[in-house]
């Protein structure tokens, strides 16, 4: 079976009736890039940048981050690398952030909420990303979005930083794709409005399921209730894809559900443009896509 999968390297992600989909990979560290290439992923659909912060005893500097993003972008050649900005808080804690103890960390001070409050942290990461953008094809996406206002604030802040860099004579790519994760029910429900503001959506089904079903994704006692196939989730995915397409942007899935082979047919039918899965699942998903005939579903 392994050998059969190996034969799929270099092959297209195309269904029997000619429908194509992108299959990218999720990584959480620079050391995963080898696996991404080995498994022939089309790009990196989710680079969880948290490791930079979690493996450090202090805030990673702009240069430290720049080196990491640059290396990944270069190693991926011309392939897209979608870096997700800091998603710390809740289950992911680093002492030096000095985050308050909270009653409901999953509903608390985390991710983009930290970045939009402590802008110095956000600035450092964005500057590093922009600087690295000339060494490959970097795209940026933002986690835990709930409103259009947040997105507008982020866009304004990015412009501010670009101006800074211009004034300093530091080059950056001028066509950096920017997108958001759709991982809160709020974002799914207003995806028609959000779609007017960004270049792409990436659906984070892990958190979207947690927040939609009101089930802590970390509580093993609730495993039997945590149903990522729940009709509510499928309907939200459909809504997000349709709203994204209505504004001409692409829509991907980067949560665990993206690699669920029982869902591949559904995703193809809904018109999902990209699935970002763990590197080891890339070829299995490709196999499933190539065996599917969407016209017969
Ligand atoms: C998600 O929530 O589905 C996701 C991809 O992000 P993370 O698992 O890092 O929260
Ligand atoms: Mg998430």
Explain what this protein looks like in three dimensions:
Helices cover 40% and strands 13% of the residues. It is globular and about 55 Å long. α4 runs parallel beside α6. The model has no long low-confidence stretch (mean pLDDT 96). With 297 residues, it is α/β, with parallel strands linked by helices. α7 links the parallel β4 and β5. It contains 13 helices and 8 strands. The longest helix is centred in the middle third of the chain and has 21 residues, at 148-168. It has an 8-stranded parallel β-barrel, surrounded by 4 helices. Residues 46, 48, 87, 183, 204-207, 254-255 line the site of phosphoenolpyruvate (PEP).
Which descriptors apply to this entry?
8-stranded parallel β-barrel; sugar transport; EC 2.7.3.9; metal-binding; alpha/beta; binds magnesium ion; 13 helices; binds phosphoenolpyruvate; 8 strands; metal ion binding
End-to-end gap = 26 Å
Structural class: alpha/beta
Strand line-up in the sheet with most strands:
1-2-3-4-5-6-7-8
Largest pleated sheet: 8 strands, parallel, barrel
User: How many strands?
Assistant: 8
Radius of gyration: 19 Å
Query: What is the ordering of alpha helices and beta strands?
Result: HEHEHHEHHEHEHHEHHEHEH
The bound ligands are: phosphoenolpyruvate, magnesium ion
Query: Unreliable runs, pLDDT <50, ≥5 residues?
Result: none
DSSP summary: helix tally = 13
- Mean pLDDT comes to 96
Strand content: 5-15%
Provide the helix percentage: 40-55%
Principal-axes geometry comes out as globular
Binding site for phosphoenolpyruvate: 48, 84, 206-207, 217
Subcellular location: Cytoplasm
Organism: Anaerobium acetethylicum
Keywords: Cytoplasm, Kinase, Magnesium, Metal-binding, Phosphotransferase system, Sugar transport, Transferase, Transport
């Amino acid at each position: 079976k392994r050998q059969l999968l190996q034969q799929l390297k270099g092959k297209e992600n195309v269904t029997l009736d000619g429908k194509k989909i992108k299959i990218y990979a999720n990584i959480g560290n620079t050391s995963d890039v080898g696996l991404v290439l080995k498994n022939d992923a089309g790009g990196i659909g989710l680079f969880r940048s948290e490791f930079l912060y979690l493996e450090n005893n202090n805030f990673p500097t702009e240069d430290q981050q720049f080196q990491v993003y640059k290396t990944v972008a270069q190693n991926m050649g011309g392939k897209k690398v979608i870096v997700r900005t800091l998603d710390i808080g809740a289950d992911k804690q680093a002492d030096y952030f000095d985050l308050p103890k909270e009653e409901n960390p999953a509903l608390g001070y985390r991710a983009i909420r930290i970045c939009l409050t402590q802008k110095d942290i956000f600035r450092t990461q964005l500057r590093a990303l922009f600087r690295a953008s000339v060494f490959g094809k970097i795209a940026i996406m933002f986690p835990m979005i709930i409103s259009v206002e947040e997105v507008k604030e982020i866009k304004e802040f990015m412009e501010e930083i670009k101006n800074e860099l211009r004034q300093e004579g530091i080059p950056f790519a001028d066509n950096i794709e920017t997108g958001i994760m759709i991982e809160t029910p709020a974002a799914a429900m207003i995806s028609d409005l959000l779609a007017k503001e960004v270049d792409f959506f990436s659906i984070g089904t892990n958190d979207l399921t947690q927040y939609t079903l009101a089930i802590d994704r970390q509580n093993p006692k609730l495993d039997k209730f945590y149903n990522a196939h729940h009709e509510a989730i499928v309907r939200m995915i459909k809504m997000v894809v349709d709203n994204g397409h209505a504004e001409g942007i692409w829509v991907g899935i980067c949560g665990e559900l993206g690699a669920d082979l029982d869902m591949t047919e559904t995703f193809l039918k809904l018109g999902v443009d990209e699935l970002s899965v763990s590197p080891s699942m890339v070829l299995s998903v490709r196999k499933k896509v190539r065996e599917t005939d969407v016209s017969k579903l």
